[in-house]
Each structure stands twice: as C-alpha cells, then as structure tokens.
Amino acid sequence: MRLLFALFLSALLCACASAPGTTPSATDAATESAPAQPTEVQWRYINSKSYEALNAGLGNSHRFESSLGWIDVYVYDMNRSWQPGVGDSQFDDHFRSTIAEVQRAAAQGVYASARIGPTRDVRIEGLTFRSVSFRLVHARDGKAYDSFTYLAVRNGKLLKYRMSFNTPPPANVEAIAREFIERNVRTGPETPVGTRQLRST
Q: Residue 5: phi, psi to the nearest 5?
C-alpha cells in the first residue's frame, strides 16, 4: 500500500512540474484559465501618451498605478495589420525584441542586473498572449522590481501590457495581472475609462 501511494505521489508531482524556458506551444495556449478571482487591487489611471507624431505606427500608451507598482498599456500597429493570435509571421521577432530591449538596457548600465524568466503562452479574455517575466535591479538606486510583459494581437493591432511590481511581488501576482487584463480588454484598451487628452512625446 505504501509503495502504491509513493508511485501515485510521484506521478502527481511529475504532472504538475513544468520545464522553465521551454518554447510555448499551441496546446499551452489552447486552454483558457478560469477568470481571475477578485484581488481588490485598485489601479488608478494616471495619463496617456501618443507616439504617432514621433514615429507613425507606434500608437499610444496608458499608465495605471497602485500601491503595488505600475502598468503601461501599449496599443500600436507599426504601420501594418497583424494577424490574430501569436501566429503572425512577424509576431515572434517582435516579441523577442521586447526582451532584447531589456537586455540592451542592462548592457548600457540602466540595470545592475536583469534576470529573464521563461516565455509562455496564456489565454486571457479570448486572446492568446505571449508572456515573459523579468527580475530587474536599477543601477541608480539598487531598487529591485518584478516586471511582466504580455503581448497579443487584437483587432489587427499589437496590445502590450508591461506590468512592474515592487519586490517582493505579492504571492497572487499572476491573478492580479490576469484580473487587470480581463477588465482592460472588456472596457477597451484603446481608450481607458477616465482617459485624458493624449500627450505627444
């Protein structure tokens, strides 16, 4: 009986384990998790910026803040219409460029250290997002924070969430991220509730 229980426990642990750094697959993205449980985190809209005057195709961003950190929501098209999901011919290269941005900042001394987590695909509010996490330490003040990028295509445009949480992040950080994205997609990421006049950069 003891041996049977040990075999069952071993099989259960193997089923729960996930290999870090694996390439996301279509099956990973096919299943949509249950909606996030309410977390009671209140995000406050701060401002919006337009990057179109600087460079057509860079779109707009919207900043939100809470006691836990901040979130930037980017909506842009890079002057092309993107295929839905993560299968567009240029999607993977663009996603990798978001990781390269962080690596460049670390090489230039903006970050004292930048640890990059595994890439994975997740389904949120009917969209497939490609996601990656970072543990960043600012070189200037030594302050550490955890950052998460979620990138998807919605209505032919790229929709990117860059979420930064003060370290250590809350234990339910994924539920907090999912809850914000669900609400933002439902209400419209292009023009968030309370949006002020767009400020050109």
A: -65, -40
Instruction: Determine the Cα–Cα distance for residues 184 and 193; give it in Å rounded to an integer.
Output: 9
Q: Would you state the pLDDT for residue 29?
A: 44
Nearest Cα to Cα of residue 130 among 93, 165, 104: 93
By CB neighbour count within 10 A (0-12 exposed, 13-18 middle, 19+ buried), where does 139 fall? middle
Q: DSSP character for 67? A: T
Residues 116 and 102: beta-carbon distance below 8 Å: yes
Count CB neighbours of 44 within 10 A. Answer: 11
Q: Name residues whose C-beta falls within 8 Å of residue 161's C-beta, 6 or more positions apart in sequence.
A: 71, 72, 73, 74, 129, 148, 149, 150, 151, 177, 180, 181, 184
User: Going by DSSP bridges, is the β-strand pair 199-200/44-50 parallel, antiparallel, or unpaired?
Assistant: parallel
d(CA 44, CA 22): 35
**Rounded percentage of the chain residues whose pLDDT exceeds 70:** 77
Q: How many CB atoms lie within 10 A of CB 51?
A: 17
Helices (H), ranges, 31-90: none
